[in-house]
Amino acid sequence: MDGEALPPGWDLVVERLSLRVATAAELTVDLTTRPALRRIRSTVAGCLGFGRTKDEPLGALLLVVDELVGNAYDHTPRPSSLRVTRELRGLLVEVVDEDPSVERVAAGGGHGLQLVEQLSLGWGVRATEPGKTVWALVPAQLFRDH
User: Fold this and answer.
1) What is the pTM of this model?
2) How many other C-beta atoms are found inside a 10 Å radius of the C-beta of residue 146?
3) Fewer CB within 10 A of the terminal residue: the chain, N end or C end?
4) Rg of the chain (C-alpha set)
Protein backbone atom coordinates (compact mmCIF):
# COMPACT_ATOMS: atom_id res chain seq x y z
CA MET A 1 0.00 0.00 0.00
CA ASP A 2 3.01 2.26 -0.30
CA GLY A 3 1.87 5.58 -1.69
CA GLU A 4 -1.76 4.47 -1.96
CA ALA A 5 -4.52 6.49 -0.36
CA LEU A 6 -6.61 4.93 2.37
CA PRO A 7 -10.18 4.06 1.44
CA PRO A 8 -12.74 6.74 2.33
CA GLY A 9 -13.37 6.95 6.07
CA TRP A 10 -10.28 4.96 7.10
CA ASP A 11 -8.40 8.05 8.19
CA LEU A 12 -11.11 8.64 10.81
CA VAL A 13 -10.96 5.00 11.93
CA VAL A 14 -7.17 5.19 12.31
CA GLU A 15 -7.43 8.49 14.19
CA ARG A 16 -10.00 7.05 16.64
CA LEU A 17 -7.93 3.91 17.19
CA SER A 18 -4.80 5.99 17.80
CA LEU A 19 -6.66 8.08 20.38
CA ARG A 20 -7.87 4.92 22.18
CA VAL A 21 -4.35 3.51 22.27
CA ALA A 22 -3.01 6.80 23.67
CA THR A 23 -5.65 6.98 26.41
CA ALA A 24 -5.00 3.32 27.27
CA ALA A 25 -1.50 4.43 28.28
CA GLU A 26 -2.47 7.50 30.32
CA LEU A 27 -5.68 9.08 31.48
CA THR A 28 -6.22 12.40 33.25
CA VAL A 29 -9.55 13.39 34.81
CA ASP A 30 -10.29 16.92 36.03
CA LEU A 31 -11.61 16.72 39.61
CA THR A 32 -12.24 20.44 40.15
CA THR A 33 -15.93 20.03 39.33
CA ARG A 34 -16.13 16.92 41.57
CA PRO A 35 -17.55 14.47 39.03
CA ALA A 36 -19.44 11.53 40.56
CA LEU A 37 -17.27 8.58 41.59
CA ARG A 38 -19.31 6.20 39.42
CA ARG A 39 -18.62 8.41 36.41
CA ILE A 40 -14.89 8.42 37.19
CA ARG A 41 -14.86 4.61 37.55
CA SER A 42 -16.68 4.25 34.25
CA THR A 43 -14.22 6.59 32.50
CA VAL A 44 -11.21 4.75 33.92
CA ALA A 45 -12.61 1.33 32.99
CA GLY A 46 -13.55 2.50 29.48
CA CYS A 47 -10.20 4.07 28.70
CA LEU A 48 -7.72 1.86 30.51
CA GLY A 49 -9.57 -1.37 29.87
CA PHE A 50 -8.73 -1.11 26.16
CA GLY A 51 -6.06 -3.61 25.16
CA ARG A 52 -5.83 -5.35 28.54
CA THR A 53 -5.64 -9.10 28.85
CA LYS A 54 -7.90 -11.31 30.96
CA ASP A 55 -5.03 -11.44 33.48
CA GLU A 56 -5.42 -7.70 34.11
CA PRO A 57 -8.62 -7.32 36.11
CA LEU A 58 -9.76 -3.76 36.72
CA GLY A 59 -11.41 -4.34 40.10
CA ALA A 60 -8.35 -3.49 42.21
CA LEU A 61 -7.58 -0.45 40.09
CA LEU A 62 -11.15 0.85 40.39
CA LEU A 63 -11.16 0.33 44.17
CA VAL A 64 -7.90 2.26 44.54
CA VAL A 65 -9.17 5.07 42.28
CA ASP A 66 -12.43 5.19 44.24
CA GLU A 67 -10.65 5.36 47.59
CA LEU A 68 -8.05 7.98 46.65
CA VAL A 69 -10.53 10.25 44.86
CA GLY A 70 -13.12 9.76 47.63
CA ASN A 71 -10.53 10.78 50.22
CA ALA A 72 -9.69 13.90 48.22
CA TYR A 73 -13.39 14.76 48.03
CA ASP A 74 -13.97 14.13 51.75
CA HIS A 75 -10.80 15.62 53.24
CA THR A 76 -9.59 18.41 50.97
CA PRO A 77 -11.22 21.66 49.91
CA ARG A 78 -9.88 21.57 46.33
CA PRO A 79 -9.23 18.26 44.56
CA SER A 80 -7.48 18.97 41.25
CA SER A 81 -6.93 15.89 39.12
CA LEU A 82 -6.70 12.14 38.82
CA ARG A 83 -4.01 10.69 36.59
CA VAL A 84 -3.64 6.98 35.82
CA THR A 85 -0.54 5.96 33.89
CA ARG A 86 0.40 2.54 32.59
CA GLU A 87 3.90 1.63 33.75
CA LEU A 88 6.01 -1.49 33.44
CA ARG A 89 5.02 -2.91 36.85
CA GLY A 90 1.44 -1.68 36.94
CA LEU A 91 -0.88 1.28 36.84
CA LEU A 92 0.20 4.40 38.70
CA VAL A 93 -2.79 6.22 40.23
CA GLU A 94 -2.14 9.82 41.30
CA VAL A 95 -4.67 12.18 42.89
CA VAL A 96 -3.61 15.81 43.15
CA ASP A 97 -5.23 18.34 45.47
CA GLU A 98 -4.47 21.82 46.76
CA ASP A 99 -4.37 20.89 50.47
CA PRO A 100 -0.74 21.00 51.68
CA SER A 101 -1.40 18.68 54.66
CA VAL A 102 0.92 15.77 53.81
CA GLU A 103 1.35 14.51 57.38
CA ARG A 104 -2.29 13.51 57.88
CA VAL A 105 -2.26 11.29 54.79
CA ALA A 106 1.22 9.91 55.50
CA ALA A 107 0.02 8.78 58.94
CA GLY A 108 -2.58 6.59 57.21
CA GLY A 109 -4.70 4.77 59.72
CA GLY A 110 -8.00 4.74 57.83
CA HIS A 111 -9.56 1.54 56.56
CA GLY A 112 -9.56 2.88 53.00
CA LEU A 113 -5.82 3.49 52.95
CA GLN A 114 -5.27 0.04 54.45
CA LEU A 115 -7.21 -1.35 51.49
CA VAL A 116 -5.07 0.72 49.10
CA GLU A 117 -1.96 -0.71 50.77
CA GLN A 118 -3.23 -4.27 50.32
CA LEU A 119 -4.12 -3.75 46.65
CA SER A 120 -0.97 -1.92 45.59
CA LEU A 121 2.75 -2.52 45.27
CA GLY A 122 3.20 0.69 47.23
CA TRP A 123 1.52 4.00 47.97
CA GLY A 124 2.50 7.34 49.38
CA VAL A 125 2.12 11.08 49.41
CA ARG A 126 4.42 13.84 48.22
CA ALA A 127 4.24 17.59 48.53
CA THR A 128 3.58 19.49 45.32
CA GLU A 129 2.83 23.12 44.65
CA PRO A 130 0.31 24.24 45.94
CA GLY A 131 -0.76 21.01 47.66
CA LYS A 132 0.06 17.31 47.45
CA THR A 133 -0.17 14.18 45.33
CA VAL A 134 -1.35 10.89 46.82
CA TRP A 135 -0.25 7.93 44.69
CA ALA A 136 -0.52 4.14 44.52
CA LEU A 137 1.02 1.63 42.11
CA VAL A 138 -1.54 -1.08 41.35
CA PRO A 139 -0.01 -4.28 39.90
CA ALA A 140 -0.89 -4.87 36.26
CA GLN A 141 -1.49 -8.56 36.80
CA LEU A 142 -3.02 -9.46 40.14
CA PHE A 143 -3.98 -12.99 39.21
CA ARG A 144 -2.11 -15.43 36.98
CA ASP A 145 -3.01 -18.93 35.89
CA HIS A 146 -0.35 -21.34 37.19
Assistant:
1) 0.77
2) 3
3) C
4) 18
Q: What does the pLDDT average to over 50-73?
A: 82
Q: Which residues contact 64 (CB under 8 A, 6 or more apart)?
A: 93, 116, 119, 120, 136, 138
The number of angstroms, rounded, from the C-alpha of 88 to the middle of its chain's C-alpha atoms is 15
Q: Calculate the average pLDDT of the chain.
A: 82
Reported as half-sphere exposure (CB side, CA atoms, 13 A), residue 123 has a value of 26
Report the distance separating Cα 119 and Cα 135, nearest Å. Answer: 12
* Predicted confidence (pLDDT) at residue 101 exceeds the cutoff of 90: no
Q: Torsions phi, psi of 43, nearest 5?
A: -65, -45
What confidence score (pLDDT) does residue 100 get? 86
Q: Rounded to an integer, what distance in angstroms lies between the CA atom of residue 30 and that of residue 102?
A: 21
81 Cβ contact list (under 8 Å, min separation 6): 28, 29, 30, 31, 32, 95, 96
Stretch (H or E) spanning 138: strand 132-139
